[in-house]
Amino acid sequence: MASHGNDAARDTYESKVPPFYYRPTFSDCQLLREQWIRAKYERQEFTHPDKQEPYSAGYREGFLWKRGRDNGQFLSRKFVLTEREGSLKYFNRNDAKEPKAVMKIEHLNATFQPAKIGHPHGLQVTYLKDNSTRNIFVYHEDGKEIVDWFNALRAARFHYLQVAFPGASDADLVPKLSRNYLKEGYMEKTGPKQTEGFRKRWFTMDDRRLMYFKDPLGLPGLCPQDAFARGEVFIGSRESGYTVLDGLPPSTQGHHWPHGITIVTPERRFLLACETEPEQRAWVEAFRKVVDRPMLPQEYAVEAHFKHKP
To answer: Could you tell me which residue ranges the PH domain spans (predicted)?
Structure first.
């Protein structure tokens, strides 16, 4: 850099970055930033495309530590990613012929969550099963390995979207490869009749899906549904009858936390409460960003499914 300058160094060391490869920002976790630097300067992956095979080949298999649903322990599991089948699979035993789960690339998202998972290389993979959101939590001791998995998943989604949207540019597709959650944290909620007491739940805002869980990693051991979100709320646009209000209706009782939020949908009102005013403001801002954004055509189909959920 001293001899050539920053721009010239970038032109050299980033000359062949694949469009799907994640370029971290200052707000990303340390692992992503470190591995970007190592890939660029130490391994020179973006000047020698043959070094990109671990995440560019369209097929990847290996072992990751996966958090168990029943006891919360991390166990070694075999994972197979295949673009040809459009899926990520994992197997409970090395010799198993049938996978324990099949995650379709079409609906898959991956995001690093080191604090939540309790490991600096922790990756959260989210997918849909029977149109309900399910999470798995994995890590690898080797930082390069888990980042290669992350970028292999992004590559698979990129190639899927290229086929699904043949006229779209790379710039249109890249933002759809993976996404960080708009907001996460604890809030209190009450049920649809708004007569029962409020209960503390962990909420995750994933685009237009607001999901809640017993705790950040899901509650192990009680029932098979614990791997899924306990509930989901679709948040549409203002033009479609959705809005977010500060506070709760005056007659509301049973909440321990004082800072309320009311989400108004065409069907009902959802009452939530935050522990602190800054948390309430942050949640309201996240909700309003979604509500103020016009809905895409495919989002109306998602909304229709939520309306017909039992």
So the answer is: 57-158, 180-292
